[in-house]
Amino acid sequence: MKHRASRLLLSCLTAIGLIHTTSASASDLPNINLGFTSFLDGAPPAGSGWYATQYLEYYTADRINDNAGNKVALPKQNVDVFAGLTQLVYQSPFKIAGAHPGIDVILPWVASAHTDDGMGDVALNARTGFGDVLIGPFIQFDPVMGPDGPRFAHRFEFQIIAPTGAYDPSKAINPGSGFWSIDPYWAATFWVNPKWTVSWRLHYLWNATNNRPYQGLGAAATSSQAGQALHINIATEYEVMPGLRIGLNGYWLRQITDMKVNGENVSGQREAVWAIGPGAMYSFSQHDHLMFNAYFEAGARNRPEGTRVVLRYVHHFH
């Protein structure tokens, strides 16, 4: 039990989507968007052009759950990570059938990461640095207009996660995953009225085979493959005064297939979690926006259950 609990803790940084690990007791999901996007997600705030976005995140947890949702038996279960994403987006002014093509590039990075199981396990020492690059061609549709302004806007993106981050199969915790993934999504915003909106982003995650699997899987392991998953971000906000919006935001993750080792399913390791919390958005102008989102997790399976805080700044070059 002690060995299994320790290996679950090794999966904690993967579970929060910032550093990848490979463990028979972990689902090994790669870098995914859990709560990074929220309000007014269906359309860029200032139309076509170049956008730069900086995300900063702090995640902390003192609980790691097993497959039944019970707390793992360890002396300590501490996870603390400070990380971020640097994003560059271009939306073309040209359009075909009301849709604008564009490209999205994201570079994750981890400034500090700490885990502690209370047993002095040096394998839990987490590496920092750059993670796997996300690249996504997209199609942004023009808003559907109503008598008082936009009513609906949406976008499709075919997001690819490239294994560019540092990866060493002898290490339990790495900034990179060592395998390719695709994580396409549909993002949309519905205006209930000019001041009140509801937004969502629906993802489907598929992962390729890792032909250099973590050596902790055993000498007989020649390949591993993370399971497929669905994950959703959802948010609603209301403009309480010019430039200031407040609301609620949340996310949901459910792994839908088992991970594989040497092509064989490893059962009982699927991840799940959901979270909800408050958020706010302040627009300095049409071209500069600051967002704050907090999330309190629940219902975790095979992953930590903690608190996530995201600060996001968006700038449109004009």
Automatic annotation (TrEMBL):
Residues 1-26 form the signal peptide. Keywords: Signal. The keyword Signal applies. InterPro entries: FApF. This is Protein involved in meta-pathway of phenol degradation-like protein. It comes from Caballeronia catudaia. The lineage of its organism: Bacteria, Pseudomonadati, Pseudomonadota, Betaproteobacteria, Burkholderiales.
